[in-house]
Amino acid sequence: MSWNRSVRQLHRWLSIAFTLAVIANLSFLPWGQPPVWIGLLALFPLILLMLSGLYMFLLPYAEAWRRTRRAGVER
């Protein structure tokens, strides 16, 4: 499996984990202020989602940069 495919799959699973953490956080709201660890539960997948999303966002730009760099070397 290629690196890009692994990152995309990880991103999908992280989105599911983040959604479940947000649902857990919201389910504690009727009983008052939720514990801090419930709030932080969503933070970890969110940070990883941000990193994998930025990686996937930059992939086309990196490929274009590589293409122009290779074209410049061949001249």
Can you give a write-up of this model?
This protein has 75 residues and is mainly α. Helices cover 84% and strands 0% of the residues. The chain has three helices and no strands. Helix 1 (3-27) runs antiparallel to helix 3.
Please describe the structure with a list of short key phrases separated by commas or semicolons.
mainly alpha, Transmembrane protein, membrane, single chain, transmembrane, 3 helices, transmembrane helix, 84% helix, 75 residues, rod-shaped
Domains counted in the coordinates: how many? 1
Tally of separate helices: 3
Mean pLDDT across residues? 88
Sheet bearing the most strands, described? none
Secondary-structure class? mainly alpha
SSE pattern, N- to C-terminal? HHH
Estimated radius of gyration: 19 Å
Q: Point out poorly predicted stretches.
A: none
How large is the share of residues in beta strands? under 5%
Q: Give the overall silhouette.
A: rod-shaped
Which range best describes the helical content: under 10%, 10-25%, 25-40%, 40-55%, 55-70% or over 70%?
Answer: over 70%
Terminus-to-terminus distance: 34 Å
Quantity of strands, as a count: 0
